[in-house]
Amino acid sequence: MSTDRILRMLEEAARLNFAAYLVWGGEPFMRPDLMNILRHARKLGLYTSLVTNGTFLTEKAKDVAKAVDLTLVSLDHFSHYHSEMRGLDGVFERAKEGIVELKKAGGRVALNCVMSKLNTDSVKGMCELARALRVKVAFDTMEVFPGINEEYALSRIERTTIFSEILKFKNDRYPILNSHDYIQHVISPQAYSCAQPRVFVVVSENGIIAPFWCRKNSQPFGDLREQSLGSILRSDRYRKFMEMVKECNLCINSVTAECSLFYSAARFLGNCFKTHNPIVRFIEDFSL
Questions:
Q1: pTM passes above 0.85
Q2: Rounded CA gap, 144 and 76, in Å?
Q3: In the predicted model, is pLDDT for residue 249 greater than 80?
Q4: Res 287 pLDDT > 80
């Protein structure tokens, strides 16, 4: 999408009462107009966030601190092995340096760690790294793309073991961003009503809006180069998707599951009556 189309999309999103704008990729800093886009989103009142590999953060720290509410830096290991996983020397050191510089500039930062067979030993080290850097860390399971990465997918037993370890560290007050509900869901999947189409939409770099890693439907809803955001959200195709996934709870990726668990009315009311209210803790976690 051109810069102008993206800015118009953000303006319409603000008029439609969207609350936030998250940029991810690929590596968002590959777009030379990225900071202009983020500044425009912030000016419109959208909560801005960014997922980056951190390699450009040091030189961009001051600009990012002014335009981005929360920056998530992708780190999948607590050592130089992260650079080996990414296939590029120095990525780990540059990411850590960028985090330090962004915090110095007043930016808010968290780590994002994707779990696979390549880094099953990383939980404790990532928790310790987050504590040392004075940031929080979010864990997620690797999404499987057939023909590309199946060999690295965690087994059910591995997921349970890893997220049980994550739960232990969260209960020990390590700075883990994931909610208790989500961690418990990965350990022992719970029923929820998918909130994806009611909470967020994913726009690809070419303007296509399609479900986010949905196991039931991958067909696009529309193209922002030809249609308005509102017309796509009001379309029969989008309404049918909302109905189709209403009772679905197949996903365990944190984006879909976390928001669906949070917006579950029954779970919300149940949490309100617990002595240690998970909702309060959730808000504390995400307010950093």
A1: yes
A2: 16
A3: yes
A4: no
Phi, psi (deg, nearest 5) at residue 208:
-75, 130
The β-bridge partners of 108 are: none
- Predicted pLDDT at 265: 61
Give pLDDT, residue 140.
Answer: 96
Instruction: Please compute the mean of the pLDDT values over residues 262-277 and round it to a whole number.
Output: 63
Q: Which two tokens stand for residue 81?
A: 């092995």
Tokens of 280: 């309060």
The closest of 255, 258, 281 to 171, measured between CA atoms, is 281
pLDDT at position 53, please?
Answer: 96
Instruction: Name the residue type at position 228.
Output: S
Asked if 74 contacts 115 with a C-beta cutoff of 8 angstroms, the reply is no
Q: How many CB atoms lie within 10 A of CB 126?
A: 26
Q: What is the 3-state secondary structure (H, E, C) of the chain?
A: CCHHHHHHHHHHHHHCCCCEEEECCCCHHHCCCHHHHHHHHHHCCCEEEEEECCCCHHHHHHHHHHHCCEEEEECCCCCCHHHHHHCCCCHHHHHHHHHHHHHHCCCCEEEEEEECCCCCCCHHHHHHHHHHHCCEEEEEECCCCCCCCHHHCCCHHHHHHHHHHHHHHHHCCCCECCCHHHHHHHHCCCCCCCCHHHHCCEECCCCEEECCCCCCCCCCCEECCCCCHHHHHCCHHHHHHHHHCCCCCCCCCHHHHHHHHHCCHHHHHHHHCCCCCHHHHHHHHHCC
| Residues β-bridged to residue 72 | 51, 110
Distance CA 227, CA 33 (A): 23
Q: Which token pair is 122?
A: 């990383």
